[in-house]
Design brief:
Number of strands of chain A: 15
CATH architecture of the largest domain in chain A: 3-Layer(aba) Sandwich
Number of domains of chain A: 2
Distance between the termini of chain B: 34 Å
CATH superfamily of the largest domain in chain A: Periplasmic binding protein-like II
Oligomer: heterodimer
Number of helices of chain B: 13
Strand order of the largest sheet of chain B: 1-2
Structural class of chain B: mainly alpha
CATH topology of the largest domain in chain A: D-Maltodextrin-Binding Protein, domain 2
CATH topology of chain B: MetI-like fold
Distance between the termini of chain A: 26 Å
Number of helices of chain A: 19
Number of domains of chain B: 1
Number of strands of chain B: 2
CATH class of the largest domain in chain A: Alpha Beta
CATH class of chain B: Mainly Alpha
CATH architecture of chain B: Orthogonal Bundle
Largest interface: A-B, 41 and 42 residues
Strand content of chain A: 15-25%
Chain lengths: 439, 280
Amino acid sequence: MNKTRTAALAALALALPVAAACGGDDDGAVTLRYAFWDDNQRPALEAMIAAFNEDHPDIEVELEQNPWDDYWPGLDSQFAAENAPDVFWNHVSRFPTYADNGVLLPLTDFIEEDGVDPSIYPENLYDSWRFEDDQYGLPKDWDSIAMVYRLDALEAAGIDPATVNDLEWNPVDGGTYVEFLQKLTVDADGDNALSPDFDPENVVQYGTAMASSTGQTDWWNYAVQNGCSLQTEPWGDYAIDAPECVEAIQFTADLYNRWHVAVPAESTNQPNGGIPGDYVVPGQAATTLDGSWMLSFYRDGLEPGTWAVADNPSGPAGSGSVINGLSNAIYAGTEHPDEAWELVKFLGSEEVQAIATEMGSVWPGVSSLNEGFADYWAEQGIDVTGFQTAAEGTTIGYPLSMNDAAFGTAALDEFNQVWLGQKDAQEAAEAVVEIANAE
Amino acid sequence: MLAPSILGFTVFLIAPIVVVVALSFYDWNLLSDPEFIGLENYRELAGDERALQSIGNTFYYVLLNIPAQTVLALALALAVNSKVKARNAFRVIYVLPWMAMPVALGVIWRWVFDPAYGALNRFLEVFGVDGASWLTDSAWAMPVIASVNVWQYTGYTMLFFLAGLQAIPAQLYEAADVDGASAPYRFFKITLPLLRPSMLFVLITSVIGSFQVFDTIHVMTAGGPAGSTATLNYQIYLESFTQRNAGYASMLAVILFAIIALITLAQVSFFRKRTVYDFS
């Protein structure tokens, strides 16, 4: 470590709220810091840690929770200050940069020594945490996007829920999907968006709500369904200026400004707007395309029997969404690599992921448990097949790039303007590509 | 006796400034070791539209914020310094916004200004007025943020003027009355000149504060739309904590420091020649 870095660290140490010092207590016990972001998953995490402590009473695990938008800047600062949590949730979008900069502890040797069997995970999920020749995480879960809708809204609009799995959209006339959303978009006089008397300025219920700080739950869906793969190849350049991508971005903008079936971007634009569920739960939107990790949000916000899950609509290229997964990773600078590995190994095991599965928290990283997750939701009256279908369709993996930060910021900045109707989709896509591929 | 305060001054002020200046000559992504790149960050600034826009935004914000806030605060101070009924209650009420948390207020104001579900546009509808998309229209977003901050800090600024007003000896006004001076004459010839020490303090602190605005912007617009509310201070945050360009952000911080230092020096030298502190 050179002097500049030491000086920079000194300054950061002053500027940051320094977390309680971790380390060994007098009796030889060890405290591990474990960082995560999703409030919906906290109960499952606590249950898993309680199980961990039955086996390892001498390792205390402290949970450190920050919401998504604050989680990454916080983690980056903690890496800079060399005071990061021992174990933390890692995301595919951040993984390449973190692995490349050496802040992640390679797990390859641990995995070999302890004989962890990687075949219990789907191969692509496990391999997504590989960088060069090392493995940097064990899969915690997987997720996909599907349609969440309100049965009461469909009933009021006279739509048979049996038809919802077969909706199709196209960029020309919108297709049956847009017609479906138009029927669900209702103004104050009770006229829907298909009626000549419809007043788009005075809508009480919109067909859909779109709000995503990455694109994962809004325009990426339509992009994938239109044959756009976001990048030239995994690790390659961003290619969202391709015609099939721009068409999908334009279609997303049309849902706002041409068809008037989406909660206006003035309210939903990120990072300061609400999340989709914030509009579906109070009834301001009838449907949304949302992530499987949000299921418990709807369970806790809506009465049983008033909502359901369906397949994504199909676009010209088919149905599908971006699939993704998280891993538990270990900080390279941890003082307790062995204990941290014990925790990560434990959280990656079948018996422990079963705990989260049985609570309906997330689709498990361990393949054999998928059934258990679906069973939990079936007992709640929710058929979650839509998420499994979404994982099979024209689905692609989350974009992998060292330039994720530049891409993410530029995309949000540019497309927010497109959703507001202030900028052309083509122009915005070109601007994003130029910024994201520059570095 | 001075040792503890000098220690604090050095550790919390001098050292970070030195480090930030040093870092402005480095490329640093927070994750690996910084790399010395000389003046590269400074050269890059010339071609960085967003950063240049943010400098312009900062001046725009300060111009929207400071005159309105200062004039309003002075007017309020004059009002609550007179013999109106319940003036103490008014003094407290005006200071209340300053006592609340800026982030919490920002969130509430964002709800108020929400175009579809916000209180303001619902209210305007009653009068048949179609409210704007306050926070997503680049023409409105900055004035809205400036007005929220004016609302928040006017009462606080008023306190300093009030203290200044009460320090002006009453016999000056009595003498002016005897000479038959009009109210505007008394204000411009007695009140305003003798308020200069307060004015100096108020302008220096509020201009510095205004250049450093962050929280209201972060929770109300996050710098959008199209970067139209990203001030230099906000740009520093974006560069360092979303783009991991800590060296470049340090360069921007040095620029901000230089701008504030120059403006403060200008203010001090302007007021120094014209200020009377001794009323006896």
